[in-house]
Amino acid sequence: MSFEELGAHPALRRALEARGWTAPTPVQAAVLDPALAARDLLVSAETGSGKTAAFGLCLAPTLLGQSERLERVRKPRWLVLAPTRELALQVQRELAWLYAEAGLRSVACVGGMPIVQQFRALHEGVHLVVGTPGRVVDHLERHSLVLDELQAVVLDEADEMMDLGFRDEIERILGEVPPVHRGLWFSATLPAEVVELSRRFLKDPARVAATPPREAHRDIRYVVHPIAEREREHAVVNVLRSHAAPGAIVFCATRDEVNRMQSSLRDRGFRCVGLSGELSQPERTRALQLLRDGHSDVLVATDVAARGLDLPDVSLVIHADLPRDFMTLQHRSGRTGRAGRKGTAVLLAPPSRRFALTRMLRAANVRAEETRCPTAEAIVALDQDRLVERLSALEAEPSEEDREVARRLLAARDPLDLVAALVTRSREAFPEPEELPLTRALEARPGPRPPPQGSAPYAPSAEGDHWFILNVGRVNRADPRWLIPILCRWGGLRKEDIGTIQVLERETRFEVHPKVARLFKDRVQVPDRVEKNLRIEQAADLRARSLAHRPRRNSPR
């Protein structure tokens, strides 16, 4: 159906036509369904699906009615909450052009930007406030923002706001909103916390699955490269060189890692910028603009960049540090494969994280193919093909003076030597690929491997060498949240090394990754320095002792 057939407001239709938007995306068509007119909505939609225009179109009847232009106001009529500054500013820009003919006045209330300008805009009167929860609460406490005339509230990326710990701020803000308003909540996923909050603040919301789970990220190819931990930076270099993507994002866990990775890539000749929480808003804006304008090819970022960035040319995402959970995996990877474009997400997996990665992929319902990290030899071979293609495509209209120079060169030098010199100079634009000797040695070493994607979960018998038994259970109020920190402290484990935990009546059985089971067993022979009464034994040892002490059937009594 067309926008006109779906009943989109004429002023907004003209703005869409000027941008070349002729047909609605699935999420836009879903929220404009006449059966949902005036209802509160709880919408699951992935990033890059056109949801900003979707709620802009959806709320036009509420805000404009039959009018072509919005009337002047003293207090805002519309509030959009977003988890990050970047997303809030992007939403403001997109709604500005969509409502340009309607005379929309808006302000972005976000941190890291001059608050005096926000005070001035709110005092002069705006129709729309787009903000992050923290800064919006700040304005409420200063009484510079009054919400008693709001007609509509949008929560964009509601799940991410919960993940970032904004629940208290959201509850405070929604408590100031008039009871009679239209609420539209958009979320890539709908965790229980979002659903529970919607029951309090939305009126009988219609659930709209604009992106069914089986279709989410269908345009993203997931690849796992096993690597040696010490060669992580070299592996990133080779992945970037192998893909030669017009835009790539490298995700790191911390600001320090971002700075280190950015410096390393820049020293090797990559055009890259960094993005992390320590940057000011002007610095962040400049970094993103360099990527959009093609002056940089690679963005190195923490998870602050995992949501809401408008970077349409990103075709490659590299998880240099693996995500902390499956939702972060989806949010990071969702920076590519947007709006119908294809993309690739590469996960660099050191041995210590393979067990956790397998569970993460299964939880995200993602099938990933495992391949070798690109070698220097393979990249050199790719470079040869690229150079042939690039130099063969050279087009120019040489002047007669240039032709004369060419004749003199051909008379003085062998043509093959001249072309080879051109190839050599052209190759200098490519950063050097890296050797990965530790990773190659790791590939040659036999050892346990995670189950293939789509197979049954890894569940060996309880008597296996990597199952252990703790001498406390439910009667002692044992639970996983209490146990995991103890196992990490006492046995030298990482959280991802711990598998299934079964809390029984008087004991707790738990699984440890096979690669660290022997070291763990040795460490827990010494009592824990804090919980001195705890005892851990290997399940196989207990079973062996039990069999040894079991009386034989025909033995004398």
What does this structure look like?
Strand 10 (272-275), helix 13 (281-292) and strand 11 form a beta-alpha-beta unit. The relative contact order is 0.09. The chain has a seven-stranded parallel β-sheet with strand order 3-4-2-5-6-1-7, with helices on both faces. A seven-stranded parallel β-sheet has the order 10-11-9-12-13-8-14, with helices on both faces. It has 22 helices and 18 strands. The chain is flat. With 557 residues, the protein is of the alpha/beta class. It has four domains: 10-209, Rossmann fold, CATH 3.40.50; 220-375, P-loop containing nucleotide triphosphate hydrolases (Rossmann fold), CATH 3.40.50.300; 378-427, no CATH class; 467-549, 2-Layer Sandwich (Alpha-Beta Plaits). It has helices at 10-18, 26-31, 51-58, 60-64, 85-98, 115-124, 133-142, 158-163, 167-174, 192-201, 232-243, 255-267, 281-292, 326-333, 354-363, 376-392, 400-412, 415-427, 437-444, 480-491, 514-523, 539-549; strands at 41-44, 78-81, 106-109, 128-131, 152-156, 182-187, 206-209, 220-226, 248-251, 272-275, 298-301, 316-319, 343-349, 368-370, 467-470, 498-503, 508-512, 536-538.
Could you list some keywords that capture this structure?
alpha/beta, 15% strand, 7-stranded parallel β-sheet, disordered C terminus, Rossmann fold, 18 strands, 557 residues
